[in-house]
Amino acid sequence: MSSKQMGRPKSENPLTVEVKARIDKKTNDELIKFCKENNITRTDVVREGIKLVMKKK
User: Fold this and answer.
1) CB proximity list for 21: less than 8 A, separation 6 or greater
2) Distance between CA atoms of 56 and 11, rounded to whole angstroms?
3) Torsion sign across C-alpha atoms 37, 55, 18, 14
4) How far is CA 35 from CA 7, 9, 38, 45, 57, in A?
5) What residue segments make up the domains of the chain, in order of their start?
6) CA separation (Å) from 39 to 3, 11, 42?
7) Is the predicted pLDDT of residue 50 greater than 70, yes or no?
8) Torsion angle in degrees (nearest 10) through CA of 47, 53, 54, 56
9) Range list of H helices, the chain
């Protein structure tokens, strides 16, 4: 039997933390529109937003 593991390789920086936020319908609609127009996921928008806020400090 082979000692090689099958499946997806382990990430060096696994994404294990989940963040939830409540937003109003208008903000959600704008977010969805932005994501579709820019071919980006909501998660990626949140990550980029966090980076922008952290740069301000």
Assistant:
1) 46
2) 29
3) positive
4) 30, 28, 5, 8, 26
5) 25-56
6) 40, 24, 10
7) yes
8) 150
9) 25-38, 42-56
CB atoms closer than 10 angstroms to residue 41: 10
| 35 vs 42: CA distance, rounded Å | 6
pLDDT digits (tens, 9 = 90+) for 15-40: 899 999 999 999 999 999 999 999 99
Cα–Cα distance, 7 to 21 (Å, whole number): 32
The pLDDT confidence band at residue 10, using thresholds 50, 70 and 90, is confident
Q: Mean pLDDT for the chain?
A: 92
pTM for the structure as a whole: 0.72
Q: Report residue 38 CA to chain centroid gap.
A: 14
